[in-house]
Amino acid sequence: MTVSGARHVGPPLRLTRRGRVVLLGVFFAMVALASVVLFTTASPA
């Protein structure tokens, strides 16, 4: 009997349109936050 460490994985995650919109919104919010942090912490030239 062989024991595998891999769990049974279901089908690939299928996102609804709302799920895609939410993920894109979170992604863009993180990008905007990162750019704001970079601009505010950058030393003046």
Structure description:
Keywords: Membrane, Transmembrane, Transmembrane helix. The chain crosses the membrane at residues 21-42. With 45 residues, the chain is mainly α. The protein is built from 1 helix and no strands. It has one helix spanning 17-41. The protein is elongated and about 60 Å long. The relative contact order is 0.08. The mean pLDDT is 84.
Provide a short characterization of the protein structure.
Keywords: Membrane, Transmembrane, Transmembrane helix. The chain crosses the membrane at residues 21-42. The protein is built from one helix and no strands.
Measured on Cα atoms, how large is the radius of gyration? 20 Å
Query: Tally the helices: what do you get?
Result: 1
Overall shape: elongated
> Which class of secondary structure composition applies to the elements?
mainly alpha
End-to-end distance: 66 Å
> What's the mean pLDDT score?
84
Order of helices and strands: H
Question: Approximately how much beta-strand content do the residues carry?
Answer: under 5%
Largest beta sheet, briefly? none
Helix content: 55-70%
Low-confidence stretches: none
Would you report the number of β strands? 0
